[in-house]
Amino acid sequence: MRNTKFSQAAHFAKAQNNLQFANEISALAVVHNDWRVTAVFYAAVHILQGYFTAKTTEYPQNHAERDDLILRTPLLRAIYKPYRSLKDASVSSRYLCFPVNNFDVDSAQRDFEAIHKHILDLLAKPDDASEGAQQE
Q1: Residue 1 lies in a domain
Q2: What is the total count of domains within the chain?
Q3: Domain for residue 3, yes or no?
Q4: Within 13 Å, how many C-alpha atoms sit on residue 80's CB side?
Q5: DSSP letter string over 15-41?
Q6: Are 90 and 41 contacting, i.e. CB atoms less than 8 angstroms apart?
Q7: With CB atoms counted within 10 Å of each terminal CB, which end of the chain scores lower, N or C?
Q8: The domain containing residue 24 runs over which residues?
Q9: 3-state class of 134 per DSSP?
Q10: Does a structural domain hold residue 2?
Q11: What's the pTM?
C-alpha cells in the first residue's frame, strides 16, 4: 500500500463518507462523541490528501509526513493550527479517557470547515496562481 496515490475525487468522496458517519452516529441513543471527532479529523485528512494529489508532487503516506508538508507548503501554513487542533482532539478522544462533549465536536467541526474552505479556495485558483503551493 505504501506509495499508493489516490485521486482527488476518491479522497473527497472518502471525506464525505467520514462526515456522513460522524452525523449518523450523533443520532444514536448512546453518545459516541469520541468517534465523531475522529471521523471529522479523518475527513480533514482526506481533504488534504485530495489537495496534495491535485496541486503538489508530494503525497504524504502518514501523519508525520502530512504535518511536515503542511508546514513546508506556504499556502497551507494558515490551516496548520486548526489541523493540529483537530488532530490533537482526535488523538485525545481515541487514547485518553477524558470525556468528549458536544462542545468538543462543535470545535472539531469548525476546525474542519476552516480547513475545507481553505482547500476549496486553493483548488479554485488556476494552477499558475498556486505554484506557491509547492514547498519552498
Answers
A1: no
A2: 1
A3: no
A4: 14
A5: HHHHHHHHHHHTTSSS--HHHHHHHHH
A6: yes
A7: N
A8: 8-133
A9: coil
A10: no
A11: 0.86
